[in-house]
Amino acid sequence: MITPKDFYRKLDNLIAKIGKEKTSQYFLSSIAAELEKTFGEDLKIAHGRLYKESGDEYVLVSPPSKAKNLRMAPKLSTHAEAVKRVLENGSYIYDDPQLSIDPQIGIPGEYSIPAAFYIRRKSKRWLFIFELKSGWVRDEVEFCFNAVRSALNYRMFSDAVQNEYEQAALIQRSLLPATTPKIGGYQIAARSKPAELVVGDFYDYFEFDEEMYGVSIGDASGHGLLAAMLVRDVVTGLRMGMEKELKMVHTIKKLNRVLHRSTYSSRFATLFYAEIERNGNLIYANAGHPGPLLVRGDSVQELKANGTILGALPEIAIQRAIARFELNSVLVMYSDGIFERHNRHDEQFGIPRLKKLVIRNQQKTAPEILDLIFDTVFQYGHGANWEDDATAVVIKRVNE
Fold first, then answer.
1. For the chain: N or C, fewer Cβ within 10 A?
2. What is the set of domains in the chain, with CATH numbers?
3. Close Cβ partners of 150 (under 8 Å, ≥ 6 residues apart)
4. Cβ(46)–Cβ(130) under 8 Å?
């Protein structure tokens, strides 16, 4: 009989391997082999095999490595009583001679009885089946199987969640503009740095015709998947609603009503949307977003909020406003991850520093100003990871 100390040490090592080993198509087969290798002699476990659910059957996908003369069932019916027992209990030892999950186990000859456990990932299940040889101890086998089963289920759940999280990030990244529009008389550059895998900031462009284009920036409250879902709704809603002939205020109010009905009441988003004409007229609406900076010389005009945030209330008050985008002026749109970044003394970078930075460097191109903003703000935080999603769009009006 294995000593408790050795048993727990071996089990701990096996569970650590389950958590760390790279997932592949052979992952579960390798764990079945490792379980037998680790505890075969101590717990009298032999001939591990793996079955994968396929319709109304479990199909053998991984026979024992030393299975030359070993006979085993290639398929198991999900309706068989023996299969139902393990699915009901998580693990099961078939010590009743009248019930066996594999009739080939325990035929006259050397003593052996079946033992099995199952794991699942979403709607798919796998059966691990072993043979127990003479000298097995129920408490030890059940404890080992249930511990391994729990570790595998958690790993499968974690992989599924991570995969979905990565898929959500991929979908969200696809919502951001793949290219920057080429607008006569304007330089445009944009960037978004996520604090997590999934970003809560967004920006977008709307190319109407040669005389006018639109641009937006926003920030969904929170981080992670819920923020990503809200970003998706806002971006999709704007793309469907914004047309040259439609009024921006009407579209934003309608979008707000949709968001209020479809999101949690504690979830909201800020939004700045502007339409810029070739001649320099800038018409905008700001639903609670930090005011973009319109810089010309030593003058800085903040395009402050003229409406409330989206999604929190069924109806919002918002209006449009007009500014003049003069030649050589620079428009900087940003999220709060830019100006709220802290240094080691817990001081924010702040909007005044951002204004001075743009004023000092307004002669540079839009991409150069964008690089300078991110480099300066990042270094202000001493190279630490971004505390919040950081996004900026820089537009400079230049000669045709």
1. C
2. 4-166 (3.30.450.40), 176-397 (3.60.40.10)
3. none
4. yes
